[in-house]
Design goal:
The complex is a heterodimer. By secondary structure, chain A is mainly β. In chain A, about 0% of the residues lie in helices and about 50% in strands. Chain B is mainly beta. Chain B contains no helices and eleven strands. Classes of the chains: A mainly beta, B mainly beta. Chains A and B meet through strand 6, strand 7, strand 11 and strand 12 of A and strand 5 and strand 10 of B.
Chain lengths: ~110, ~120
Protein backbone atom coordinates (compact mmCIF):
# COMPACT_ATOMS: atom_id res chain seq x y z
CA UNK A 1 0.00 0.00 0.00
CA UNK A 2 1.08 3.57 -0.62
CA UNK A 3 1.55 5.41 2.68
CA UNK A 4 0.43 9.03 2.79
CA UNK A 5 1.99 11.25 5.46
CA UNK A 6 0.66 14.72 6.18
CA UNK A 7 2.39 17.52 8.05
CA UNK A 8 1.77 19.15 10.36
CA UNK A 9 -0.85 17.20 12.33
CA UNK A 10 -2.42 20.51 13.33
CA UNK A 11 -1.89 24.19 12.75
CA UNK A 12 -3.36 27.44 14.02
CA UNK A 13 -3.47 30.37 11.63
CA UNK A 14 -4.80 33.91 12.06
CA UNK A 15 -7.82 34.95 10.05
CA UNK A 16 -6.74 36.22 6.64
CA UNK A 17 -3.36 34.53 6.82
CA UNK A 18 -2.05 31.68 4.68
CA UNK A 19 -2.29 28.05 5.74
CA UNK A 20 -0.26 25.31 4.07
CA UNK A 21 -0.57 21.57 4.54
CA UNK A 22 1.94 19.10 3.15
CA UNK A 23 1.32 15.56 1.98
CA UNK A 24 4.02 13.07 1.06
CA UNK A 25 3.44 9.71 -0.60
CA UNK A 26 5.72 6.68 -0.15
CA UNK A 27 5.95 6.32 -3.93
CA UNK A 28 5.10 8.46 -6.93
CA UNK A 29 1.40 8.85 -7.68
CA UNK A 30 1.91 10.25 -11.18
CA UNK A 31 -0.11 8.23 -13.67
CA UNK A 32 1.26 7.93 -17.19
CA UNK A 33 -2.19 6.75 -18.28
CA UNK A 34 -4.00 9.81 -16.96
CA UNK A 35 -0.92 12.07 -17.40
CA UNK A 36 -1.72 13.45 -13.99
CA UNK A 37 -0.96 13.06 -10.32
CA UNK A 38 -3.65 10.91 -8.68
CA UNK A 39 -3.93 13.03 -5.54
CA UNK A 40 -7.04 14.54 -3.96
CA UNK A 41 -7.69 16.83 -1.00
CA UNK A 42 -10.78 16.71 1.20
CA UNK A 43 -12.18 18.95 3.90
CA UNK A 44 -14.14 17.50 6.80
CA UNK A 45 -16.01 19.69 9.25
CA UNK A 46 -17.29 18.27 12.56
CA UNK A 47 -20.34 16.09 12.13
CA UNK A 48 -20.18 16.22 8.34
CA UNK A 49 -18.92 13.86 5.62
CA UNK A 50 -15.74 14.81 3.80
CA UNK A 51 -15.99 17.22 0.89
CA UNK A 52 -13.81 17.04 -2.21
CA UNK A 53 -11.75 20.21 -2.68
CA UNK A 54 -9.01 19.31 -5.16
CA UNK A 55 -8.33 16.40 -7.53
CA UNK A 56 -5.51 15.62 -9.97
CA UNK A 57 -3.40 17.42 -7.33
CA UNK A 58 -4.36 20.90 -8.52
CA UNK A 59 -7.83 20.89 -10.11
CA UNK A 60 -10.36 22.68 -7.94
CA UNK A 61 -13.74 20.99 -7.63
CA UNK A 62 -16.69 23.03 -8.86
CA UNK A 63 -17.92 25.49 -6.24
CA UNK A 64 -14.76 25.41 -4.12
CA UNK A 65 -13.52 28.93 -3.32
CA UNK A 66 -10.39 29.98 -5.18
CA UNK A 67 -8.53 30.60 -1.92
CA UNK A 68 -7.99 26.82 -1.93
CA UNK A 69 -5.21 25.61 -4.22
CA UNK A 70 -3.24 22.42 -4.67
CA UNK A 71 0.28 21.98 -5.96
CA UNK A 72 3.04 19.41 -6.22
CA UNK A 73 3.95 16.38 -8.26
CA UNK A 74 5.34 12.89 -7.85
CA UNK A 75 5.54 12.33 -4.10
CA UNK A 76 5.22 15.81 -2.57
CA UNK A 77 2.06 17.86 -2.50
CA UNK A 78 0.69 20.96 -0.78
CA UNK A 79 -2.77 22.31 -0.05
CA UNK A 80 -2.76 26.07 0.45
CA UNK A 81 -5.52 28.24 1.85
CA UNK A 82 -4.45 31.70 0.76
CA UNK A 83 -6.51 33.69 3.25
CA UNK A 84 -8.00 31.65 6.07
CA UNK A 85 -11.66 32.24 6.81
CA UNK A 86 -13.57 31.17 9.92
CA UNK A 87 -15.53 28.62 7.89
CA UNK A 88 -12.28 26.87 6.88
CA UNK A 89 -11.83 25.39 10.37
CA UNK A 90 -11.81 21.68 9.63
CA UNK A 91 -9.68 18.59 9.25
CA UNK A 92 -8.05 18.21 5.83
CA UNK A 93 -7.07 14.89 4.26
CA UNK A 94 -5.02 14.02 1.23
CA UNK A 95 -5.74 10.81 -0.67
CA UNK A 96 -3.85 8.96 -3.36
CA UNK A 97 -5.92 7.11 -5.92
CA UNK A 98 -3.01 5.96 -8.08
CA UNK A 99 -3.31 2.39 -6.89
CA UNK A 100 -5.72 0.20 -5.00
CA UNK A 101 -6.11 0.30 -2.10
CA UNK A 102 -6.47 4.05 -2.29
CA UNK A 103 -5.10 5.54 0.92
CA UNK A 104 -5.63 8.68 2.97
CA UNK A 105 -3.24 10.76 4.99
CA UNK A 106 -3.82 10.91 8.73
CA UNK A 107 -5.42 14.35 8.55
CA UNK A 108 -4.41 17.89 9.50
CA UNK A 109 -6.56 19.93 11.84
CA UNK A 110 -6.75 23.63 10.97
CA UNK A 111 -7.80 26.08 13.66
CA UNK A 112 -7.94 29.84 14.12
CA UNK A 113 -5.13 31.43 16.12
CA UNK B 1 -30.52 16.63 -7.07
CA UNK B 2 -27.56 14.27 -7.22
CA UNK B 3 -27.17 12.56 -3.86
CA UNK B 4 -26.31 9.46 -1.89
CA UNK B 5 -28.58 8.71 1.05
CA UNK B 6 -27.47 6.16 3.62
CA UNK B 7 -29.52 4.08 6.02
CA UNK B 8 -29.84 5.09 9.65
CA UNK B 9 -27.70 4.43 12.69
CA UNK B 10 -27.45 0.89 13.99
CA UNK B 11 -26.77 -0.57 17.43
CA UNK B 12 -25.79 -4.23 17.40
CA UNK B 13 -24.29 -6.89 19.64
CA UNK B 14 -21.02 -8.69 18.90
CA UNK B 15 -21.59 -11.66 16.61
CA UNK B 16 -24.69 -10.20 14.96
CA UNK B 17 -24.97 -9.57 11.24
CA UNK B 18 -25.67 -6.23 9.60
CA UNK B 19 -26.29 -4.75 6.16
CA UNK B 20 -26.24 -0.99 5.63
CA UNK B 21 -27.34 0.75 2.48
CA UNK B 22 -26.51 3.69 0.23
CA UNK B 23 -29.12 4.83 -2.30
CA UNK B 24 -28.09 6.96 -5.25
CA UNK B 25 -30.37 9.37 -7.05
CA UNK B 26 -30.20 12.12 -9.65
CA UNK B 27 -27.61 10.42 -11.83
CA UNK B 28 -26.98 7.22 -13.80
CA UNK B 29 -26.38 4.94 -10.81
CA UNK B 30 -25.07 1.95 -12.77
CA UNK B 31 -22.25 3.87 -14.45
CA UNK B 32 -20.15 4.70 -11.41
CA UNK B 33 -17.86 3.07 -8.88
CA UNK B 34 -19.14 3.44 -5.30
CA UNK B 35 -16.71 3.23 -2.42
CA UNK B 36 -16.96 2.69 1.32
CA UNK B 37 -14.87 4.59 3.87
CA UNK B 38 -14.60 3.86 7.59
CA UNK B 39 -14.03 6.51 10.24
CA UNK B 40 -13.57 5.19 13.75
CA UNK B 41 -14.49 7.58 16.57
CA UNK B 42 -12.09 10.53 16.64
CA UNK B 43 -9.92 9.01 13.92
CA UNK B 44 -9.13 9.48 10.24
CA UNK B 45 -10.51 8.09 7.02
CA UNK B 46 -9.87 4.51 5.89
CA UNK B 47 -10.60 3.32 2.35
CA UNK B 48 -12.39 -0.02 2.57
CA UNK B 49 -13.12 -0.84 -1.04
CA UNK B 50 -15.06 0.02 -4.17
CA UNK B 51 -17.71 -1.70 -6.28
CA UNK B 52 -18.70 -0.95 -9.85
CA UNK B 53 -22.46 -0.63 -9.86
CA UNK B 54 -22.70 -1.71 -13.52
CA UNK B 55 -21.43 -5.25 -13.00
CA UNK B 56 -20.70 -5.61 -9.26
CA UNK B 57 -16.93 -5.86 -9.83
CA UNK B 58 -15.56 -5.28 -6.32
CA UNK B 59 -12.09 -4.42 -5.06
CA UNK B 60 -11.27 -4.58 -1.36
CA UNK B 61 -8.51 -3.14 0.74
CA UNK B 62 -6.48 -6.05 2.18
CA UNK B 63 -7.35 -4.64 5.62
CA UNK B 64 -11.03 -5.31 5.00
CA UNK B 65 -10.99 -8.29 2.62
CA UNK B 66 -12.95 -11.14 4.20
CA UNK B 67 -14.32 -8.86 6.95
CA UNK B 68 -17.06 -7.15 4.93
CA UNK B 69 -18.96 -7.72 1.70
CA UNK B 70 -20.01 -5.04 -0.76
CA UNK B 71 -22.96 -5.57 -3.10
CA UNK B 72 -25.32 -3.66 -5.35
CA UNK B 73 -28.99 -3.85 -6.32
CA UNK B 74 -29.19 -1.93 -9.58
CA UNK B 75 -32.99 -2.21 -9.70
CA UNK B 76 -33.26 0.14 -6.73
CA UNK B 77 -30.01 2.10 -7.25
CA UNK B 78 -28.64 0.93 -3.92
CA UNK B 79 -25.24 -0.22 -2.75
CA UNK B 80 -24.73 -2.27 0.41
CA UNK B 81 -22.03 -3.03 2.95
CA UNK B 82 -22.53 -6.05 5.13
CA UNK B 83 -20.98 -7.93 8.03
CA UNK B 84 -21.72 -11.55 8.94
CA UNK B 85 -20.37 -11.32 12.48
CA UNK B 86 -19.78 -7.91 14.00
CA UNK B 87 -17.03 -7.11 16.50
CA UNK B 88 -16.77 -4.23 18.93
CA UNK B 89 -13.91 -2.91 16.80
CA UNK B 90 -16.38 -2.40 13.92
CA UNK B 91 -17.85 0.54 15.83
CA UNK B 92 -17.42 3.46 13.45
CA UNK B 93 -19.06 5.85 11.02
CA UNK B 94 -19.29 4.35 7.54
CA UNK B 95 -19.54 6.55 4.48
CA UNK B 96 -20.40 5.60 0.94
CA UNK B 97 -19.00 7.84 -1.78
CA UNK B 98 -19.11 8.04 -5.57
CA UNK B 99 -16.17 8.23 -7.91
CA UNK B 100 -15.74 11.52 -9.75
CA UNK B 101 -15.53 9.95 -13.21
CA UNK B 102 -17.92 7.07 -13.69
CA UNK B 103 -15.77 4.38 -15.23
CA UNK B 104 -12.44 5.14 -13.58
CA UNK B 105 -11.44 2.50 -11.04
CA UNK B 106 -8.75 4.81 -9.68
CA UNK B 107 -10.48 8.06 -8.82
CA UNK B 108 -11.34 10.65 -6.19
CA UNK B 109 -14.70 10.66 -4.41
CA UNK B 110 -16.80 13.63 -5.49
CA UNK B 111 -20.01 12.89 -3.65
CA UNK B 112 -20.50 11.41 -0.20
CA UNK B 113 -23.40 9.98 1.72
CA UNK B 114 -24.22 11.43 5.12
CA UNK B 115 -22.74 8.44 6.92
CA UNK B 116 -24.14 5.52 8.92
CA UNK B 117 -23.00 5.17 12.52
CA UNK B 118 -22.59 1.54 13.55
CA UNK B 119 -22.21 0.81 17.25
CA UNK B 120 -21.32 -2.70 18.36
CA UNK B 121 -21.61 -3.28 22.08
CA UNK B 122 -22.65 -6.06 24.40
Amino acid sequence: DIVMTQSPDSLAVSLGERASINCKSSQSVFSSIHKNNCLAWYQQKPGQPPKLLIYWASTRESGVPDRFSGSGSGTDFTLTISSLQAEDVAVYYCQQYYSIPATFGQGTKVEIK
Amino acid sequence: EVQLVQSGAEVKKPGESLKISCKGSGYSFDSYWIGWVRQMPGKGLEWMGIIYTGDSDARYSPSFEGQVTMSVDRSISTAYLQWSSLKASDTAMYYCARHLYGGNMEDAFDMWGQGTMVTVSS
